[in-house]
Structure formats: structure tokens, C-alpha cells
């Protein structure tokens, strides 16, 4: 931390489902009617909103009065001016940490789970009341911080995208994508598929795990801190002009996959956020591999 500046805590959250319903329907009565038509109860949505607000209140109150503070909504992360000395506190589901990770560069992240009975809590392992203990430990360098590997996609025009869980490249309408795939061992194949998924050890418990379970001979999935990635081609279609022999593998520290777009425009996005994507024109080249940047996540003592 800087010797001249007090620590700054940046609180990251996203709007609750109730907030989104009120923004769309205007009143709780209208939101309740909308939910009842779909077999849901407004009370459950309100309870989840209240749990999030209570967690945010606890975290805000625990920040020392002489520390600086900032706040960023998930929708504003791409524009938020994070500073090197920031401590980032993400209050919400695991996906919120993944959303924030791509905009950070070495800042420690504390994940707070406002609904431990509902969320997996892999990236948000702490209860709100623990923040008062964690903040001083992070500043003093006593908190256990573990680095998690991220995945990077880079276009030949210099545009880049980072992901904590996985990166997907495919057709923008989720139809068949046409491209040429080149692997690290020099093999090359023209393919028509539902897209390419390249995942990290953090993402290996999600989308990549679902794909691997359906593949005989799937490569071993990496651990969260391992400098390795796994990759899968979804529903490759063999035809007279396309193949289906290169459909899965692993990438090491300095290894990359490469695809060259053919015919249709392709899109590349990370961690399920299709709105934040790269667009590949015909003939453009994309390389995907482990990122040099890593997420520094505060984890419970003794965590694997």
C-alpha cells in the first residue's frame, strides 16, 4: 500500500432482481403481479434484496472512517478507474468476482456472500461480518491470497479480452461457426461447430465440467491456480470440407490455440457476458492462451 495514501476499498455489487423489476414495472404491486403470472412470489425476491442490502450495509460500516472508499456497479466495471492500491470487495454471487476480475491488475479481492444458503460461495467464501477482520489483514499482508489463472483472447489487430472462467468463440447467433483451428502441436483443421470454449481451473467446475462429463477421453481439467487451460470444440460437424478430429485438449503456460474466421462474423466473449465481446471479421486471427495477469483472491485460511 502507498505510504502517503490511506487504503481505498472499492465495493462492487450489482442491482438486485427487485431493483431490476422495479426499473421495468415501476411499482412493487406491478412487479408482484408479473411474478405471480410466472408462478413466483414477490416475498422471495424481496428477501433476497434485503439480504444483499444488509450485507452492503455491514461491509460499508466496517470500512475504517479514515480510509478512502469507492463503489462500482457491475454494469460500470469497464469504466471504473481502479487504482493499484485498491482493495476490492465484491458482495454478491460468484459470477460478480468473475465479472470484476478482467478489469483488475493485481488488486486483492475479497468475496462476500450475502446468501450463503443459495450461492456456491467458491469465489465469495466470506460472511459479511468477517470483513471487519479481513480488511486490516489484507493491508498488513497477513491475509492468505491465492492467485487464480485467467485466460486471454487476442485478435491480430491488438484487441484483447480476459476471462476468469472461460472464453467462448463462435457464431453471434449460436449457429454453426466456420473457422480454421490450429493447435499448439502444429495440427490444423477447418471446422464447422457450435463454438470453441477455453476454460481455466476456476471455470473447470462450470461449463467446461459439463462438457467434459459428456466426452470420453476428455483431458484432465486444470486446478484454479495451475498455469494451464482446457479447451473443447462444441458439436464439431464432419463434412467433405470440415473435420472433427481436433475437439479437446490442454494448454500450458506459454501455449496458445489459434482460430481464423471464415465466412461469417464470429464473436468472442468471456464468462458469459455476451454484451462485452470482440468481433472477428472474415480472415481475422484469434489466439487464446493463459493470461499473464492473474486474479489475487483472498481465501479462507487452510483453503485448498
Describe the model.
InterPro entries: ATP-NAD_kinase_N, ATP-NAD_kinase_PpnK-typ_C, NAD/diacylglycerol_kinase_sf. GO terms for molecular function: NAD+ kinase activity. This is NAD kinase. It comes from Plantactinospora soyae. The chain is α+β, with helices and mostly antiparallel strands and 304 residues long. The protein has two domains: 8-143, 3-Layer(aba) Sandwich (Rossmann fold), CATH 3.40.50; 149-292, Probable inorganic polyphosphate/atp-NAD kinase, domain 2 (Tumour Suppressor Smad4). The chain contains six helices and 16 strands. It has helices at residues 17-25, 28-36, 42-62, 94-101, 131-140, 207-213, and strands at residues 8-13, 68-73, 86-91, 108-112, 145-155, 160-163, 166-170, 177-182, 188-193, 196-199, 229-233, 248-251, 257-261, 266-270, 277-280, 285-298. Strands 1, 2, 3, 4, 5, 6, 8, 9, 13 and 16 form a ten-stranded mixed sheet that branches. A six-stranded antiparallel sheet has the order 12-11-10-7-14-15, covered by helices on one side. The longest helix is centred in the N-terminal third of the chain and has 21 residues, at 42-62.
Amino acid at each position: 500500500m502507498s505510504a502517503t495514501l490511506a487504503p481505498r476499498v472499492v465495493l462492487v455489487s450489482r442491482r438486485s432482481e427487485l431493483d431490476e423489476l422495479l426499473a421495468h414495472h415501476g411499482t412493487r404491486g406491478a412487479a408482484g403481479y408479473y411474478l405471480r403470472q410466472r408462478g413466483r412470489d414477490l416475498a422471495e425476491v424481496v428477501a433476497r434484496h434485503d439480504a444483499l442490502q444488509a450485507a452492503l450495509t455491514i461491509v460499508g460500516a466496517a470500512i475504517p472512517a479514515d480510509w478512502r472508499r469507492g463503489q462500482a456497479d457491475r454494469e460500470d466495471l469497464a469504466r471504473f478507474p481502479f487504482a493499484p492500491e485498491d482493495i476490492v470487495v465484491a458482495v454478491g454471487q460468484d459470477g460478480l468476482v468473475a465479472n470484476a476480475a478482467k478489469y483488475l491488475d493485481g488488486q486483492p479481492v475479497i468475496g462476500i456472500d450475502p446468501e450463503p444458503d443459495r450461492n456456491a460461495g467458491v469465489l465469495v467464501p466470506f460472511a459479511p461480518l468477517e470483513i471487519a477482520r479481513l480488511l486490516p489483514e489484507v493491508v498488513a499482508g497477513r491475509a492468505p491470497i491465492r492467485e487464480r489463472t485467467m485466460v486471454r483472447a487476442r485478435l491480430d489487430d491488438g484487441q484483447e479480452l480476459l476471462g476468469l472462467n472461460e472464453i467462448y468463440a463462435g457464431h453471434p447467433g449460436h449457429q454453426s461457426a466456420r473457422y480454421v483451428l490450429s493447435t499448439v502441436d502444429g495440427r490444423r483443421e477447418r471446422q464447422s461447430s457450435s463454438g470453441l470454449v477455453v476454460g481455466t481451473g476456476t471455470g473447470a467446475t462450470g461449463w467446461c465440467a459439463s462438457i467434459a462429463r459428456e466426452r470420453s477421453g476428455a483431458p484432465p481439467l486444470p486446478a484454479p491456480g495451475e498455469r494451464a487451460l482446457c479447451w473443447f470444440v462444441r458439436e464439431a460437424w464432419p463434412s467433405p470440407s470440415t473435420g472433427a478430429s481436433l475437439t479437446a485438449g490442454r494448454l500450458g503456460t506459454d501455449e496458445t490455440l489459434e482460430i481464423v474466421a471464415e465466412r461469417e462474423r464470429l464473436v468472442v466473449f468471456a464468462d458469459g457476458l455476451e454484451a462485452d465481446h470482440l468481433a472477428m471479421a472474415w480472415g481475422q486471427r484469434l489466439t487464446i492462451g493463459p493470461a499473464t495477469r492473474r486474479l489475487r483472491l483472498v481465501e479462507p485460511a487452510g483453503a485448498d
